[in-house]
Amino acid sequence: MSSKPLKQIHLAAHFPGVNNTTVWSDPAAGSHIDFDSFIHFARTAERAKFDFLFLAEGLRLREQGGEIYDLDVVGRPDTFTVLAALAAVTDRLGLTGTINSTFNEPYEVARQFATLDHLSEGRAAWNVVTSWDAFTGENFRRGGFLPREDRYSRAQEFLATATELFDSWDGSEIAADAGSGTFLRNARAGVFAHRGRHFDIEGRFNVPRSPQGRPVIFQAGDSEEGREFAAAGADAIFGRYGTLDAGREFYADVKGRLARHGRTHDQLKILPAATFVLGDTDAEAREIAHEVRRLQVSGQTAIKFLEHVWNRDLSAYDPDGPLPETDPLVGENTIALGRASVRQFRDPLATARQWRELARAKNLSIRELVIATTADQTFVGSAATIAGSIDALVQADAADGFILVPHITPGGLDAFADSVVPLLQERGVFRTEYEGTTLRDHLGLAVPAPASTPAPAPAPVS
Amino acid sequence: MSVSSSSPAPLHLAVALDGAGRHPAAWREPGARPAELFTARYWAGLASEAETGLLDFITFEDGLALQSSSPTGSDERTDRVRGRLDAVLTAARVAPLTRRIGLVPAVTATHTEPFHISKAIATPDHVSRGRAGLRIQVSGLAHEASHFGRRTAPFADGELYAEAADHVEVVRRLWDSWEDDAEIRNVATGRFVDREKLHHIDFEGRHFSVRGPSITPRPPQGQPVVSASGAGEASYALIARSAEVGYVAAHDGDGARAAVAAIRRAREATGATAEPLHLFGELTVFLDADAPAAAARLERLDALAGLPHGDGGTAFTGSPGQLADLLLERRAAGLSGFLLRPGVIAHDLPAITRSLVPELQRRGAFRHAYEADTLRGLLGLERPANRYARPAARPAA
Ligand SMILES: Cc1cc2nc3c(=O)[nH]c(=O)nc-3n(C[C@H](O)[C@H](O)[C@H](O)COP(=O)(O)O)c2cc1C
User: Fold this and answer.
1) Is the pLDDT of residue B396 over 70?
2) Is B37 a member of any domain?
3) Rounded-to-integer distance, Cα A398 and Cα A272, Å
């Protein structure tokens, strides 16, 4: 045994969403909208002493082949308001919301996060995403307006601007002294001015500094620009890689970027998305996992998935038959809209070639191929096996913890909370009680001091 | 509902909550808890007090600028409440802690995206099982526009209100963009939704073009309750076209009567007269055991604030009994309810719930128990049919 102290694991719960990992056809699957589902899910996560609950977001219903995609769960509540409501039924659990930096404005979003942080007594976090597509833009005043290459430049300036707004109050302004009649100690609380390429705004921010100073910042996105964005300013990454090798590579890459931004190793937590299937034994878990994969990838789902790569209508193909011999349509993907996964296939011809080879070698049908190549469960096994795998990955620096995405709403976390968490606690790698009250406390992040913003001089704009 | 001529239809009552109260010195009063204005505990307490009084709903006032005593820009006063939480989130935070009362946050149409607002109001409606609404407002303030940087003030009033009406239209279409039974979970066909029951809204207007559908399923009320304040013709047109509840601030019965008539005329012009429209009188209230006590309190507050509280003559000082007289008399102007602004929340909110309400109940003019579990239900409004739903096939005549 090495003398290296055990790393403490961070765990979070992703409310099952609108993707094909959510098995809605299971009789145990409940509502994904009813607030009772959110209460159940959040309270389970809190009972298990998880760091936070995580919500994804999409601002347009997915469409494929010109029609609304109807094979997966469709619909979700508004991120901010459902998190605000959850603050009323939980005490410690962090509340992380995905909010897009392209289809929002800094003043409003900063206000909403500062409010959420107040209303939850310091439990708010913001997963800054940058989807920019014109398809989503059709739901907003200004339509689709951002070239792809500008998505992170806007995101960076958005976050910088929001930070200026958060920091426009340092937390010492409110005296609320009824006797003397002094409400504010500082007459200029909230003064800000930001002039930049994407935002040119000034005035007074109207929410006083919140318990965490600023919300915790998450990044999700895997490109070079995304990794830099995270290294420069995020507190945590919602990552993609839950396996040992890919995880370690990603971990080393992103953590290796921190020093250049004057930051230390522990200022950025890497938390990949992870799915799991529990059984009484490993063998049973594998059987259940196989069944879950069949439910996640129906024949129709497999065809639709293949269309993401082929970029053409494949509805005439038999999911239990071989892959199409025709090649993918190269160029802008027009078949599937509103899906991040489409962008994973940067070279569809190569992907198609690879898949055909794999299918021939293993004699796989379309459906079997899709099952084999898409999001396999990260953790499959008995509670002991899963606890061991999670611990091993974290100790090996493939991650700092995981954001668990159960496949059933809302009870999909229950068994994990009851069986895996106690084993991690026995190993001494996961808390048995919350040590603090805020999400920053749970993640071991310091409350940021407000950047000292000198009172802005009226900058002439040419 | 059958109402005899001796006991007129019960009044609807709402309270407007903002900081420590309408009076600028309210935060200095005993019990005001000014250091807690930014906590959930404070707002939950107020909502629960209002619910104890069986009020129809509470509004959460808001704005996208720091409060200011100047109508044209920010001030540097340190003796007034400055800062407030986002109203929509505050309403959502309170929703799980209340059971019957309606929750109506203010929303500024001028600077927000209707797509975001639609789901942000639908969600507390889901959380509260049908008790959400919104109070739509506009902002022509240059210093508020500079927080967004997208456009420069001034804006013409008519333009602002026309944009707000489009905003509400988009929001309403998005609420209807899911039919109630769109989610089918058909295991046999693998279909989670019936996409025939999800609709693009395809709104095209001067300020918005929005495609839809919403990402959030239709809220329990179908259409949460939309309300707006009336102050001048342009706002009357918004109320007439877009609202289920309009607030009318008037100095006296005649003023209220004139405003009501103007809004009703505007309503007729829209052709929507079949839909019920509540008009509420809007009043700031200072309630005490008797009129001299209330006047003395207001005087003391004015002295603290350093100037008389100008609420344009729409402030009431007096006893709960006198206020009950006024409300019942003012109702003859065509008002079905009132939005009361507590001068000092710590004092006047409990005076409303514990003295005014019992007084109105004694006179047969206010409910003794919540008679419905949605806000529309409390206001006697039907749950609207979905504009996109094809009428169910009717048997041939
Ligand atoms: C694990 C993960 C989760 C994501 N979740 C969301 C989401 O909920 N909403 C969204 O709009 N985008 C989401 N994204 C998409 C990214 O935010 C988006 O692709 C990105 O910002 C574009 O940057 P990239 O090119 O760096 O990936 C997610 C991405 C990853 C890797």
Assistant:
1) no
2) yes
3) 9
